[in-house]
Design goal:
Elements lengths: L6 H9 L3 H21 L4 H18 L12 H18 L26 H24 L2 H11 L5 H8 L3 H18 L1 H5 L3 H11 L3 H14 L7
Helix pairs in contact: 1-2, 2-3, 2-5, 3-4, 3-11, 4-5, 5-10, 6-7, 6-8, 7-8
């Protein structure tokens, strides 16, 4: 799944020549950063602060990082930045992080409810985020009507007849949309297909995603603090 972090996107970010690359990076990774921060004990507001600080750091350091699989993984580089920013917020006097168990050390902010180490928790969060991205890729490749039919049929637990009535497709068209979409998802998420858990893991990723109000808040804050597009 590491290949989902495309070198072309990272190179565009590093060079600062493609505003769309930055927007794509933001759209792909802010839910991951926010969700990890919340899981590490941050309040909603602090998690938004962490997202803002991490993305600003990534933008500033894009000339430092070079995508080279032989030297290290992008997910590890990003994870280090995220954990450092969470720890920084924990050390601030007006901290809003609630460490579990009364631990006053900075690393307490990185304790996770499931007992995983910060590194293991980050790996799990990163993988789950990539699964949610698969749907974005699929949606960009399918006609809107057919993608809606697939979503309603597979994730909405509606019958083919009900989906056909909503989308205007025939029942055959609904079945065809599902077959096409699942085949493509299996290509994109092959390791999960082989373990027979692809659909279940994607549903889990969807259910754990931040809601629309959080996205609006994060987007608004980034628009106020990041450089204008023409300066990217």
């Amino acid at each position: 799944m590491e290949s989902n972090t495309r070198p072309t996107l990272l190179e565009s970010l590093r060079d600062g020549t493609d505003p769309q690359a930055w927007e794509e990076f933001f759209g792909r990774y802010w839910p991951l950063i926010y969700g990890y921060a919340r899981h590490a004990g941050c309040s909603d507001h602090t998690a938004e602060d962490v997202v803002q600080d991490v993305l600003a750091t990534v933008f500033q350091q894009r000339g430092v990082f070079r995508y080279d699989p032989q030297r290290g993984r992008f997910r590890s580089w990003l994870g280090t930045i995220v954990r450092n920013k969470i720890a920084e917020h924990h050390r601030r006097p007006a901290q809003r992080i609630r460490p579990r168990g009364g631990d006053s050390q900075a690393d307490a902010a990185l304790h996770h409810a499931d007992g995983d180490s910060p590194e293991a928790a980050w790996e799990a969060a990163f993988e789950k985020n990539l699964l949610s991205v698969l749907l974005d890729v699929l949606q960009s490749e399918m006609a809107p009507q057919r993608f809606q039919a697939f979503e309603l049929f597979v994730f909405g637990d509606l019958s083919a007849a009900e989906v056909a009535q909503i989308t205007g497709l025939t029942r055959h068209g609904v079945y065809n949309a599902r077959r096409t979409a699942l085949k493509r998802l299996e290509e994109l998420g092959q390791p999960y297909r082989e373990r027979g858990e692809l659909t279940a893991r994607i549903i889990e990723a969807i259910e754990s995603a931040p809601d629309a109000s959080v996205e609006r808040a994060v987007t608004s804050r980034l628009q106020r603090t990041m450089p204008p597009k023409q300066e990217y």
